[in-house]
TrEMBL record:
GO molecular function: DNA binding; DNA-binding transcription factor activity
Protein name, UniProt field: GntR family transcriptional regulator
Organism, scientific name: Kribbella albertanoniae
Record-linked PANTHER family: GNTR-FAMILY TRANSCRIPTIONAL REGULATOR, HTH-TYPE TRANSCRIPTIONAL REPRESSOR YTRA
Swiss-Prot/TrEMBL keywords: DNA-binding, Transcription, Transcription regulation
InterPro entries, sorted: Tscrpt_reg_HTH_GntR (IPR000524), WH-like_DNA-bd_sf (IPR036388), WH_DNA-bd_sf (IPR036390)
Length: 119
């Protein structure tokens, strides 16, 4: 499940974010506790707690004292907006720059993209 490319706590946070974006975790749904998460994935509870704390700081999760952690009501929209912004900055803008650099007309790029949208 976890790889060596980034710290485990960041991978935990990313996995939970993915679950929210895809709808596997709904708004106001309770998530596993850090201890349950640590036991399930056989990791240090402090590592799981660090990932959860990051999500709380980002407004993706919130705590109900004595009950546990829950998905924030606006988490999915928040995450999707951030990913959309990142998509354009990380994928579309460099693609356009590369197309210009190698002489591919923008209309050809758009036509190619439309082929995927129609399938």
């Amino acid at each position: 499940m976890f790889d060596e490319r980034s710290p485990i706590y960041l991978q935990i946070a990313e996995q939970i974010k993915n679950d929210i974006v895809t709808g596997a975790l709904a708004e106001d749904e309770q998530v596993m506790s850090t201890n349950q998460y640590a036991a399930f994935y056989r990791i240090n509870p402090a590592t799981a707690a660090k990932g959860f704390a990051q999500l709380v700081d980002e407004g993706v999760l919130y705590k109900k004292r004595g009950i546990g952690m829950f998905v924030s009501p606006n988490a999915r929209d928040l995450l999707r907006t951030g990913r959309q912004d990142g998509f354009f900055a990380d994928v579309v803008d460099p693609m356009i720059r590369e197309a210009k650099a190698i002489g591919v007309p923008l209309r050809d790029v758009i036509q190619h993209i439309r082929k995927y949208g129609d399938s």
